[in-house]
Design brief:
alpha/beta, 8-stranded antiparallel beta sheet, 6-stranded antiparallel beta sheet, 18 helices, 24 strands, globular, binds 2-deoxy-2-amino glucitol-6-phosphate
Length: 634
């Protein structure tokens, strides 16, 4: 939700800011803007809509400024119009601010500023910040006792202002009166500082930094940093100096390029065999034998996390919530632990009772989803009275270990999917599924809930997955593209699954909804006849996931019930061709696989189907309307 960038150094800031915003456009694309300081003046340029509109305007921008800030917006307060675009400035146009987040007390702040005579030019919550800063600077200048040495005056004003703000925010500030500094602050919204050679950067997310540097410093909540041409100083909101050590990333700038694919989403779908392989290579013991006491996994989670567990709570949103539903199935059926999956946005206001023997797992690919972080923070707080071993029963599953989640929980499983740019999650979903297989099997080993033979069988199945995903991609991409032509005017889709494949039906429907804007719902196949079947007719295609196993025959019967209502039936199944043709109108074949592992395969054709329908409809697959990759507001 909104991306912010900043630069101070020897180079021309505007191009660096624009390039940074391109890498952050997945966070919002309602408007964009930059502000920079040149020859004692603040220069600001903004444009409604996607970033290319700003890029067009910047062609006439002639200021070789070397310090500046930029923003790409996902509108929360105020329409996506240019007058609401960031940066926002004070009345004298001497300072500019970009913000990611929501200032919850902006109404009262705006009212008190209005009473002091400040005039507002936008409908945003953010605009209170430049006016508050101007007001603070006026007072600091007029009050010698409070006056700090000139370079820190802006820092001091920012500190006073952030202490008045309520909500979740990350801000960056530049001022023509303080041309040699850039001030940033963070409270519950991500902000990372990048260290280059005599140049410093800030951004909401690391992809904006990696073309320039691999050395980063994530700010923590309640921290302010002053970036100058000479370095970075960090303090907390009380003004106390904070000593922090930057860390080095091991990322390659090519990871954030399309590499010949038409869209990031398609590239990321194709990366999935490699992602599964990388995850398994990282975490599976190569030469594990069933007689070994040691686990077949190398998750490196302490045994205390597992001791006497009687319940697991999983907190997540969106696609991560769907992966968690598969996780629940595995943790219950494989490891025998009662597991509840909660929408983080619901849990944070109505948490289930906590017992000391509950393990709480937060699942978020970005590690920055505001609701998931808030729900976990609540869990952390609720545990503060428990003894150490219980307090530490918090585990994160994330693709971004350097994220806020990574710094919040004591234990992590890194899903190793590589950066995902497409707003619709694909490879990170598959990687989350793998993480849940590994966790459930590790727990099963610890709790001895599987026979050695069954454990070996599942491990062998896991090792086959990368090749099987590859096989589906190779055999189906063209076919799915052709099939997609049939659905360009379709208005509703139904996805059916049961058991471990019910969450895949939900995920298939979400993928279609978010990128093609076609209404789609996922249902447990057995629930159809309790209401949703009334929706069916010849215009509503039904996608049924029918994998041999515990619910195979049941799903086939439910699919027939849909067919009897004239629905066009698409089967995701390994049934032989003739049988499948007798049952379904169209078949997307899946290789034979243990039912328990089948979600990793059944998800792939559903991703391809959603992708091709959206691409053929000419939609912006990577940046669908109204969405942002990382939802950092409530
Ligand atoms: C996925 O396609 C969605 N864009 C969205 O539902 C996403 O999964 C959700 O916002 C959670 O994100 P997270 O995994 O980064 O927490």
């Amino acid at each position: 939700m909104c991306g912010i960038v900043g630069y101070i150094g020897p180079k021309q800031a505007s191009q660096i800011l624009l390039a940074g915003l391109e890498k952050l456009e997945y966070r919002g694309y309602d408007s964009a803007g930059i502000a920079a300081i040149w020859e004692g003046q603040l220069h600001c340029i903004r444009a409604k809509g996607k970033l290319f509109h700003l890029a067009d305007k910047l062609a006439d921008w002639s200021y070789p400024a070397t310090v500046g800030i930029g923003h790409t917006r996902w509108a929360t307060h105020g329409k996506p119009e240019e007058y609401n675009a960031h940066p926002h400035r004070d009345e004298s146009e001497r300072l500019a601010v970009v913000q990611n987040g929501i200032i919850e007390n902006y109404r009262e702040l705006r009212e008190s500023l209005r009473q002091k005579g400040y005039a507002f030019r936008s409908e945003t919550d953010t605009e209170v910040i430049p006016h508050l800063l101007a007001d603070c600077l006026k007072q600091l200048r007029n009050n010698p006792s409070d006056k700090a040495t000139p370079p820190s005056l802006l820092l001091q004003a920012v500190r006073q202002v952030v202490n008045q703000l309520q909500g979740a925010f990350a801000i960056a500030v530049v001022s023509a009166d303080f041309p040699d500094e850039l001030i940033v602050a963070r409270q519950q919204a991500p902000l990372v500082i990048g260290y280059g050679q005599g140049e410093y950067f800030c951004a909401s997310d690391t992809p904006a930094l990696i073309p320039y540097t691999q050395t980063i410093l994530p700010l923590d909540n309640g921290e302010i940093a002053r970036l100058s041409y000479n370095g970075v100083e960090v303090c907390n909101f009380n003004g106390d100096r904070v000593r922090k050590t930057p860390r080095t990333l091991n990322w390659n700038p090519v990871m954030v390029e399309k590499q010949g694919f038409k869209h990031f989403m398609l590239k990321e779908i194709y990366e999935q065999p490699g992602v599964v392989r990388a995850c398994l290579e990282t975490y599976l013991q190569e030469d594990w034998q069933p007689d070994r006491t040691q686990s077949p996994m190398r998750l490196e989670l302490p045994q205390e996390l597992y001791a006497d567990l009687d319940r697991i709570h999983i907190l997540a949103c969106g696609t991560s919530w769907h992966a968690s539903l598969v996780g629940k199935y595995l943790l219950e059926q494989v490891a025998g632990i009662p597991t509840e999956v909660h929408y983080a946005s619901e849990f944070r206001y109505a948490p289930s009772p906590l017992t000391p023997n509950t393990l709480t797992i937060g699942v978020t690919q970005s590690g920055e989803t505001a609701d998931t972080l808030a729900a976990l923070e609540l869990e952390k707080h609720r545990r503060s009275d428990l003894k150490d071993a219980y307090r530490a029963r918090l585990l994160g599953i994330t693709n971004r270990t350097e994220s806020s989640l990574g710094r919040m929980v004591p234990h992590l499983i890194d899903t190793h999917a590589g950066i995902e740019i497409g707003v619709a999650a694909t490879k990170t979903f598959i990687a989350q599924l793998i993480a849940f297989y590994l966790l459930a099997l590790d727990l099963a080993h610890y709790r001895k809930t599987l026979t050695p033979e069954r454990m070996v069988e599942i491990l062998e199945g896991l090792r086959q997955l990368p090749a099987l995903v590859e096989q589906i991609l190779e055999s189906q991409e063209r076919y799915v593209e052709t099939l997609a032509h049939q659905f360009l005017d379709t208005q509703d889709f139904i996805y059916l699954g049961r058991g471990i494949n019910f969450p895949i039906a939900l995920e298939g429907a979400l993928k279609l909804k978010e990128i093609s804007y076609i209404h789609a719902e996922g249902y447990p196949a057995g629930e159809m006849k309790h209401g949703p079947i009334a929706l069916l007719d010849a215009k509503v295609p039904v996608v049924a996931i029918a994998m041999p196993g515990t619910v195979f025959e049941k799903v086939l019967s439910n699919a027939q019930e849909a067919k009897a209502r004239d629905a066009q039936l698409i089967g995701i199944t390994p049934m032989n061709e003739q049988e499948a043709r007798e049952t379904f109108d169209t078949v997307l074949p899946i290789p034979e696989i243990d039912e328990l592992l089948s979600p990793v395969l059944t998800a792939i054709p559903l991703q391809l189907l959603a992708y091709h329908i959206a691409a053929l409809r000419g939609l912006d697959v990577d940046q669908p309307r109204n969405l942002a990759k990382s939802v950092t507001v409530e």
